[in-house]
Amino acid sequence: MKIFITGGSRGIGHKVVMMALAKGHDVAFTYNNPETDVKQILEEAKRIAPNQLCNAYQLNIRKSDDVVRVTDQVLDDFEDVDTVINNAGINKNNLAFNMTDDEWLDVIDTNLNGTFYVIRQFLPVFLANRKGHFVTVSSIAKDGISGQANYSASKAGLVGLSGAIAKEYGQKGITSNVVVPGMFETDMTKKSLNNQLKDFWMLHCPLKRMGKLEELAEVILFLGSDAASFVNGQAISVTGGLDWAE
Predict the structure, then answer these.
(1) Is-catalytic flag, 151?
(2) Pick from 169, 107, 90, 109: which is nearest to 134 by CA?
(3) Which residues of the chain have pLDDT under 70?
(4) What does the alpha-carbon distance between residue 156 and residue 100 come to, in Å, rounded to a whole number?
(5) Residue 184 confidence (pLDDT)
């Protein structure tokens, strides 16, 4: 299987990249920060799966022209793509009353608009193949979290976007699903989550712990595989049983 994943240099995306390679898949991943140590990531990939193809591409997902350029290059390098994993995302927390236009637009443009640009680019490929899998990473924030109006709106939008793609193109052999993660320890959550929210999670989550990235990556890779060919238009919670936060 040939996989394209956005935001694959760290956190959830990085774990998915490495697990996909270990399972024998070829992987193209994107990153945005020019200071990313791409060489180190590719060396890690080579150690894990020396026989698999793994390429990195710098991409500002907010710019549709960049998305066109990078996806064209990926298709030249890999010849085809079977699965697209929409993982890239940012957050800029603030109370709604204090939220600036830039804080709102930066998050919406990256998380929601960027995902749409990627899906739009790969639809012709999947239509030509009469099969393909989209997997999009949302969040329990889709139902609203205090201080994250922009992030919550973007993650709710992804559920609607994925559902529309599932209904429009399911008859063409294309599936589109969403994973809804709860609290996982990533670079983003370390920086953005306060101790109060972490304490809330540990108190109310039935499993009494945060999730492990490999647990989430397994679900993502399953939804992106032919084993999940009859799973379409779904939002799969990977939350340990706690599907909301304050």
Answers:
(1) yes
(2) 169
(3) 187-194
(4) 20
(5) 85
pLDDT given at position 188: 63
- Is the residue at 218 inside a domain? yes
**Does 9 fall in a domain?**
yes
Residue type, 66: D
Which pLDDT value is given to residue 231?
A: 98
The Cβ of residue 147 has, within 10 Å, a number of other Cβ atoms equal to 18
Q: Which of 160, 132, 130 is nearest to 229 (CA)?
A: 132
Distance between CA atoms of 16 and 213, rounded to whole angstroms? 8
Question: Which of helix, strand or coil describes residue 118?
Answer: helix
Predicted confidence (pLDDT) per residue in 166-205, tens digit: 999 999 999 999 999 998 877 666 665 667 777 888 888 8
Q: Which domain holds residue 225?
A: 2-184+212-238
Asked whether residue 243 is assigned to any structural domain, the reply reads: no
Task: Give the phi and the psi of residue 182 in degrees, each rounded to 5.
Answer: -90, -135
Choice among 31, 117, 151, 169 that is catalytic: 151
CATH number for 41: 3.40.50.720
Counted domains in the chain:
1
Q: Which residues contact 77 (CB under 8 A, 6 or more apart)?
A: 28, 53, 55
Task: Enter the tokens of residue 51.
Answer: 């026989």
- Please give the pLDDT value at position 63: 97
| Structure tokens belonging to residue 203 | 């108190």
What is residue 240's three-state secondary structure? coil
- What one-character-per-residue DSSP string does 100-112 give? -HHHHHHHHIIII
Whether residue 106 lies inside any domain: the answer is yes
Q: By the 8 A CB rule, do 218 and 162 touch?
A: no
Q: What is the pTM of this model?
A: 0.94
* Number of other CB atoms surrounding residue 40 within 10 Å: 10
